[in-house]
Amino acid sequence: MKKAFSSIAALALLASVPAQAETVAEFYKNKTVTFIIGTSPGGTYDAWARLIARHWPDHLPGKPKFIAKNLPGAGGIKASNYLFNVAPKDGSVIGTFSRNIPTRAILNHPAVKFDPVKFSWLGSPELTNRVCIAMANSKVKTGADLFKHELLMGGAGAGTAVSTTPNLLRALFGMKFKLIEGYKGAIDVVLAMERGEVQGICQTYTAFKIGHPGWIEKGKVNVLFNIEPNPIPGTNIPSVFQFAKGEDERKILSFYSSNVELGRPVAGPPGLPGDRLQALRRGFDGVMKDPAFVKAATKQGLKIDPLTGEEVGRRVAKLAATDPDTVAKTEAMLKKLNPQFTDTVKISGVKRKGRRLEFSLKGKPVTIRVSGSRTKVTIAGKKAKRSAIKAGMTCKITHLGPNSRAKKVACK
Q: Model pTM?
């Protein structure tokens, strides 16, 4: 009996001792970390993410494998919503998405389902500038020429910086930008510039230089200005702030351009365990200084100018603290720039089980995206799935323009 009692006492004593917490190295050993990329393959975000993913294991305890997975959609909102709401909050899934994402949240974009301040920010590999560029054969050679001559700009859809930047500058300063929508992204816009369909684009300086080496140096294009308050160091490119006439204009432009200061942000879901968050942040910092990483980045034409996760978090918090009046004025202006259209059309093609609808509008082919959750679809007045839409149907479509997501699709 005494022996049995002693055994029970020993078991009780063991039960009272708290279990050893799993270390960061133990958690990541033999793990695979998924690195979500909020853009399509190709382009600068994709290049940075895949390069970082190759070197991060060497700077993280346990040396887990990293796999990159593209999750494009809604200008990065799809990936951001997934990372914030769906991804495991244990450090096994991280992501990168457009620097514009925090601003979209602050401006109350209807598709946003996250609080940017609550992301677990891990760092950024570079800082860049957003510029507006014109083909050398256009009449617009400088920013001042935009008050005299029209410039056809390629757009990549409502809400993207490629489209929003020229629209905002047109509304704010009266610059004669004319936006031609319907292109899938910046790469397609530049191809259209080569074909003579459009004459210019607004995108990041480094992305343009990497994607189109020699264009600026050989004078094939003119860089009109950058949209941040200060000119780009080491260049003769002026700042668009030279055209700001009042404090309201400066505040709106400062708010809009401030997201560039976030670089190419990398984040984890909210609520990561503290030790894993610190390990990921310090691992990211280590990657930025890794000679092998630096050599590979240089070879790809990528310029390393990093921010720590803590600094990205501070900048997001500062952005979120923008005075409500400036946010409201910017939001109202952008809403005017992205008017809603309602067109009754005959559907000529249906792609991807209703995800894409094709039709003709004013003699031009148009494609509209249909969301399974955010587009209201009805057929003969009854709620329906997008897969029920068929070619030949006559539908009344509410949308923001070519290549945008439809708000409503009502078919007969």
A: 0.77
